[in-house]
Please model this.
Amino acid sequence: MEPFSTHRGLVALLDRANVDTDAIIPKQFLKSIKRTGFGLSLFFDWRYLPEGDPDPEFSLNYPRYQGASVLVTRNNFGCGSSREHAVWAVMQYGFRAIIAPRQEIGGQQIPGFADIFKNNCVKNGLVTVELEAPEVDEIFAMVERNKGLEATVDLDEQRVVLHLPEEMAFHFDIDPVVKKHLRHGLDEIALTLEHADEITVFEQKHDPQMIGG
Amino acid sequence: MLAIFAPVNWWADSLINRRRSAVRLCIFFRSGLEKRAGGAYKSLSMAKTLFQKVWDAHVVRTLPDGTVILYIDRHLVHEVTSPQAFEGLRLSKRKVRRPELTFSTLDHNVPTDDPFNIKDPISRAQVEALINNCRDNGIKLFDYETGHQGIVHAIGPEMGLTLPGLTVVCGDSHTSTHGAFGSLGFGIGTSEVEHVMATQTLRQTKSKTFKVEFTGRLQPGCTSKDMVLKLIGLIGTAGGTGYVMEYCGEAIRALSMEARMTICNMSIEGGARAGMIAPDDVTFEYIASGDRPYAPRGKALDKAIAYWKTLPTEDGAEFDRTITINTSEVSPQVTWGTSPGMVVDVGGVVPDPDKVPGYSRRDVEQALEYMDLKPGTKMTDIRPDTIFLGSCTNARIEDLRKVAKLIKGRRKADTLRVMVVPGSQQIRRQAEAEGIDQVFKDFGAEWRHAGCSMCLGMNPDQLKPGERCASTSNRNFEGRQGKGGRTHLVSPEMAAACAVEGHFVDIRTWDGLKALSA
Model:
């Protein structure tokens, strides 16, 4: 996995909440036994017209967002199935980071990202940035007003910077374990295998039938 | 709690590797507070939840940064989320550490009209990849020839693989199903599938706990599906994010194992990776009965039950969040939108876009446009053209039996098509032995082979654009059952009544309901 420290790129907007993993990568593309080739199918049902041409109404098809690598969207992104293909598709399309708000709607506290998706992102080096809802609203407004606007996602400093004539910066919180993982692009399996002896010792006293004693 | 009781500077300055002692200190303060409020100090501070007990029994090592290496007792594998994990193992020259704790089946791609004949070459290649990977790695595969093929979350319990107190994972979000036994079951991504294969562990941080108490009893015709849909309607599809749910209360105790599995299955639709129910006599009876080749028997079972009885949450154990639902007020539920939280009582109407908790006006307008529904439409005026009785949520023998009782001697409405897809080969055989298949055929339904089928349409079973389905599955996302397809999630009983009448009906007042108690 490629380490992530800081990334600057064009920002694209996807103005939808509760984007589920079926929408991110529909089921017909899960039949592949490879880890690659998913970028073209990202958001397939929204992105393409029935005849197969790109739908000009879908935001990621706007000329101004071509080449974008920072995706800004709405709350609860990545809900639904555990398919890691969703993360592969987002990354293989070209995104390195996703920004979404934690939001209160009608008394419900809704996080920016769903649990399994967020976890899968960490394993692949895709950075998920959760900001306050008004901050994301502000980013939406700035990107809409300023064609070609770029942002920097700085993991070390834990901030997102919008490269306007007068820069705007937003601080974000991140679990230190996740930060370390992303920062160094760690191979988790290799790290865990350093504890192989302890796993063996555990197995000697642990009964995987859980019948006690 | 931390901000209140721990000195702020001390807390901020504390190193990550001191986190555990800090947490302990916090508990001490908290317990002290409870003591002053008249509680019993010792029982409050020591009382453990079911989740805590299962978690503690599986901690191999707590790392300095707080991450836990958690041991995994059962790794269930299906064809969709595993090929890249096996490939990763091959590339890094690693092996499956405990193939005897790894079990696999074929479910997502399987055609349910003719499971031996996968026409789609890409689907076939994925199925063949799993067959080869299991052979090369010494992993047990429940394929067609074994007679035990089926949806992975149907076969785990029925084979006796799922037991109380275990950790169960699978590259599938509905692994939460297995929590119905008091195991900790949760879905993982493919990278984690590879991690479990290589190490038989996962690196985890502990979830918060969410107590969901269902008081009272269900009304006749209402089901555990209605309970969980009601819950999701109340807390939203992200309400459980970061939590492990524990379902408890009188109404949960009164449920069968199969009904409990339906609730735990849909924990993920409420955002929680896992949902658990404390094991009790209903659990032990389920495990002890039937042909479950992997369940303990004889003295081993007695010993197991003695241990399993120690697992339930103790009095006074604390949860991070709690909700109480009066089950006697839960009506039959029907979803109207494209998210499981977009749900309403069957007696209700498609809501006003400004009045849906957890969704913005635009979220609702997008959903209604996709669903081709208008605010104010009575749910009972909605006329599906497809009924899907299947999926890991509701395709167990009990579901099939109940629906068969409701429809026996009747004929489906002419306007719709009915598909019945048993969760496993074993369920299908059992149904056929009981003559249930004939009831469905006489009704005008298609009697299919086991698989995920139209729950996600990764196989030929799909809705066509614009088709509207009353589905016993778990997700009503856009395109989930087929591009342009429109899904209404309901219980099997509600699907049955709808199949007879051609539109949704309130099963509580439907004249066919009396057949259930006959």
